[in-house]
């Protein structure tokens, strides 16, 4: 059985949890607090970031984008009709463009700020950078999330799913990131109904259940977080 | 003929210039200053970043990592013996791990700071964020580059090329980033001879020539920049 090193509110880890669940894989989940920089974890992934997939045979696959490519190459062909990386060249470019959009750009502009300031800092020692949240970072993230929500709405006004006709990695990456922001109550859903409808569809998938059960100790989610009909 | 939208000192653009040259492709080079946020460029790539490859048939491929995957999938098989993405699963994971290391992590910790502060800001209007360089950012980047150089030395003490037995995308990405830092004279080459020897080998390849001819107007490179025997 594979092991996934993850942090429950690391959005890129959540993306891989969704991918594995959609593939019917049930890995051992090992919680990792990346800011602790554990030696054993740094040996697995010198970059020090979650998620990391450790295959039963010992192969280490670090990083959400790399794990997604790896899982598609090793398991994708068995998913007839449910493969999350398309076959046509132009479609692959579009899925990868949006995958990077959410795993890197949305993370840098929204999720990274909010999760670090509002969640991780509660558990970090002051030596690791813990302490009071930086309100400027939170304000910037709240402005940025509005632009991203509009972009999702723009795409969804033209497509069945974010990258085209089928559910792909791009939908799961976008929804994984939004789920972290939604836990914190920071998604302005009323600003874009099209984006909200898309999120409700992804959120209703069985693969999403374990994410909706995650809780930050001492910090309940926004009231609608686990509500499928929000 | 394909067109590459690039900025000469965008390290991720340099990586794709190297890849195209290694593949024997000669694209039209269109210089783009990403901070100007030209409407026509944002239509090609809403993320607003270089590089972007525009194929003759009209397909737009944005982002260095995505262009690399695309070129391997469309041209890689024709490169018998010189393919820069290996076939074996574990080797592909390692190339992608190191590709992301340089295109994202090294960029965020070193090249992004140095190129923005020392080069781009000279050409930006004050509205776009131009002005005097932020010395704290430059100092941080100079400390970080030392750690990265040691990591390259560590890898090269165990391997023929950065990701294994063959030249791969990982070598070109690492060398592209170091070439920008080297122009500015900020690589502490004396700290790691193993890393320096590897760089000298990559730098001697014909694909590197056009990078070594780039100049920032009014800002000559470090004296050894174009010297193959530095």
Automatic annotation (TrEMBL), chains A, B:
Occurrences of domain GST N-terminal (ranges): 1-79
Residue ranges constituting the GST C-terminal domain according to the UniProt record: 88-221
Positions in coiled-coil regions: none
GO molecular function per UniProt: glutathione transferase activity
GO biological process: glutathione metabolic process
Pfam entry (one): GST_N_3
Oligomeric and partner information: Homodimer.
Name used for this protein in its record: FtsZ-localized protein A
UniProt source species: Methylobacterium hispanicum
């Amino acid at each position: 059985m594979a092991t996934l090193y993850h942090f429950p509110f690391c959005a890129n880890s959540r993306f891989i949890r969704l991918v594995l669940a959609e593939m019917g894989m049930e890995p051992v989940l090992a919680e990792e607090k990346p800011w602790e920089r554990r030696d054993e974890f740094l040996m697995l992934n010198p970059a020090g970031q979650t998620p990391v997939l450790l295959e039963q045979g010992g192969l280490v696959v670090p990083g959400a984008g790399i794990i997604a490519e790896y899982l598609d190459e090793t398991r994708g062909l068995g998913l007839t009709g449910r493969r999350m990386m398309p076959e046509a060249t132009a479609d692959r470019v579009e899925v990868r463009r949006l995958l990077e959009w959410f795993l890197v750009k949305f993370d840098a502009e929204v999720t990274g700020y909010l999760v670090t300031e509002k969640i991780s800092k509660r558990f970090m020692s002051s030596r690791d950078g813990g302490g009071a949240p930086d309100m400027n970072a939170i304000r910037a993230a709240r402005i940025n999330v509005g632009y991203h929500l509009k972009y999702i709405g723009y795409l969804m006004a033209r497509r069945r799913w974010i990258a085209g006709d089928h559910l792909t990695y791009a939908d799961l990456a976008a929804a994984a990131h939004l789920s972290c922001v939604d836990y914190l109550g920071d998604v302005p859903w009323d600003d874009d109904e099209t984006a909200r409808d898309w999120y409700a569809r992804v959120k209703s998938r069985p693969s999403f259940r374990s994410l909706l059960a995650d809780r930050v100790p001492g910090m309940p989610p926004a009231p609608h977080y686990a509500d499928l009909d929000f």
